[in-house]
Amino acid sequence: MPKTKEPTLKLSTFLNLMEKNEGKCNHASKNVYVQGKIMYETGSWNTECNYSKEMLENMIFDTKKPMSKDLPFIPKKGPNADYFK
């Protein structure tokens, strides 16, 4: 069976869906919603988050501030790869 790829989401759309469907949690620092919100607001990320690398490779970052080019992980593929060249 061929492998299908999920459509690419904008970070703002992901956060909006989480907020509308009660998927947000503001208490857990390693929660994907919390890290997504940090990325969206600041253009940076928490290096302890297990989701950040996956988010950088798979989501379109329409952040409020430009994404920092001084990140511990720079995506080589996905929708943000060209941004960091």
Can you describe what's shown?
The protein has 85 residues and is mainly alpha-helical. It has a domain at 9-65. Helix content is 33%, strand content 5%. It has 3 helices and 2 strands; from the N terminus they run βαααβ. It has helices at residues 11-20, 32-42, 52-58, and strands at 9-10, 59-60.
- Percent range for β-strand residues: under 5%
Strand order of the largest sheet: 1-2
Radius of gyration: 13 Å
The protein's oligomeric status is single chain
User: Could you estimate the helical fraction of the residues in percent?
Assistant: 25-40%
Major sheet characteristics: 2 strands, parallel
Number of DSSP E strands: 2
SSE order, one letter for each helix or strand: EHHHE
Distance between the termini: 35 Å
Indicate the structural class: mainly alpha
Shape: globular
Mean pLDDT: 79
Taking pLDDT < 50 over at least 5 consecutive residues as the criterion, the unreliable ranges are none
Q: Give the helix tally.
A: 3
Topology:
Blueprint: E1 9-10, H1 11-20, H2 32-42, H3 52-58, E2 59-60
Parallel strand pairs: 1-2
Helix pairs in contact: 1-2
Provide keyphrases for this structure:
5% strand, globular
Short précis:
The chain contains 3 helices and 2 strands; from the N terminus they run βαααβ. It has helices at residues 11-20, 32-42, 52-58; strands at residues 9-10, 59-60. Helix 1 (11-20) crosses helix 2 (32-42).
